[in-house]
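To assess whether the prediction recovers the assembly geometry, we first specified each molecular entity separately, as shown.
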Amino acid sequence: MFGVCYYPEHWPQSQWDKDAAMMAELGLTYVRIGEFAWSRLEPNPGEYDFDWLDAAIESLTSAGLKVVMGTPTATPPKWLIDQYPEILPVDPDTGRIRGFGSRRHYDFSSAVYLRESLRITEALAKRYGAHKDIVGWQTDNELCCHDTALSGSELALEAFQHWCQQRYTSIDKLNSDWGNVFWSMEYRDFSEIELPIGAVTETSPAHRLAYRRFSSDQVINYHNPMVEMIRQHAPGKFITHNFIPMNETAVDNFALAAPLDFTSYDNYPLGRTDLLMTGAPAEQLRRYMRTGHPDFATYYHDQTRGLLNRGFWVMEQQPGPVNWANNNPRPAPGMIRFWTLEAFAHGADCVCYFRWRQAPFAQEQMHAGLLRPDNSKTEAWPEAEQAMAEVAALDIGNQPLQPASVAIITGAEGLWVSDIEKQGEAYDFNNVQLSYYSALRELGVNIDFISVDSDFTAYALIIAPSLPIVDQAFVDKCKASSAQFIFGPRAGAKTSEFGYPATLPPGLLQQLIPIRILSVETLRADCMEGLSWNKQQYQSGSWCEQIDAGESEILARYDNGEPAVVRQDRTTYIGTLTNREFLLDFFQQYCQQANIQTYRFGTDIRVCQRGDLIFAFNYSDQPQELPLDSDTSLMLGSAHIEPHGVTVWRPSGT
Ligand code: GAL
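The predicted structure of the complete assembly is given in tokenized form:
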């Protein structure tokens, strides 16, 4: 259940056996290799050199280790770019070519690059597909990382015109669907269509939505043949990909994950916390700068797991300071062990540390590993050892994953809509979704991220924080389900082509709750106003909808007495963004009504259940007392939970 990321090509061959022996001694099972090694695998066009890789694999597997082979398509070599410069993508914001010299310098619309990628993938898969100790494959690396999903190239434009023709079939339909009569934007032919970039002011939102859908399809159309190629030559071996979260790439990760055996995630809690909390007041950031925010790592674990609704791997786990955030602190003592246990609690099947040894050269020389460049062990080493012993003692691998009671509906379309139509600077898809998730996690409930296409049967409570586009099939599924549904603001507010519903928002959802949104106001985030619910005062702001509640029950009101939260049967509609206290109290009441167990143990304690084990994680630098019954059967730690400590117990009655 443990592994490491290793780059044999960075070290002299004389080092490989020693490294392998030390990996085995640490108790690791898996070693991921190869994902950036194209220039060594094919130093000249068509001239493959597999001898060094054979030798590296031999060193690793003779020490008893299993290999996960990465395909090297994230880094096309210089000769390939020189031969086919059209592989390079174009930055849609600046119109500049994104050149050679780092990674991910390829355009998803380049047919030449797809051909070349399949060629190198086939060569590797043919050579290593049947190797008994190469147990699985990772495709590419973090597809669309570094903002590479969109390209403004000529190739992308041609492919987009073709995609539009397939989707809309006639130019009149496209003009009408996009509302192109507005500002004389009408096209006479598909060949006239532009990419929605480089215009004077904003382009049509429907045009931009189409470009996002198209770009996401291009990534999937590039990736799927690679998976098929590996399947063909490596039957019976797993294929995974280390996903960048959907809110960063704006790609439909559900569709991207579909052909894989399981999904993987690269967990860098401090880097992500630094980036996500950019602009937050210093007191808030300081609290979490060495632990990561209590909900950021698991937010992505749960989302990655949800893509296929089965276990997942942490393919890369931060072992110390990284090099790529604005600021790169050292983890607090104990955090490597803490994050490892946390990943397993949230359903991981394996945690691989990134990387084996810090590289003394190139871009990531300031990035920690399990070893320093002089081979001394970093603090991560004993912490990984401890986590391994604890994971074994708790037998976490045999704890089945059960469906959570609460599901959050997520998807790329909500994100696209919020990116494309800002309307108010304080509304952001990811912030809204994260605030809902975070409140639910502070209540200690397990959460599954699902898509509109998922099976709803297992869930008592289904929450859609930001779901602007729905279709009739979704509405029918909601009607057929017995769950409680909570919709956040903006639900059903757009047609599939980014129009305003003729019956007013929430459009098709009016079949579940017959209300009409009369207008929307957006306010500065620091201009919150009152919200009264359950005889208590909370706050509302940023995004406030004026609701004609019709016959539905009014649960909460704005300061002016107008409805802000309404309910009809099993459907609740929240028409505004609120403060955290409201979400905590409101969701707690819904959980209680649905008989969902909550553990509200304070702002810095997170509780999560896997199988027969309940885990509590203390994110604070102070000890805390968990209000556990005196006869609780403790499996690890105690009710007095140390700073950055972990306590595990069994639910009563088991
Ligand atoms: C990941 C990436 C790795 C390495 C790492 C550094 O996003 O997959 O190749 O760059 O970050 O933290």
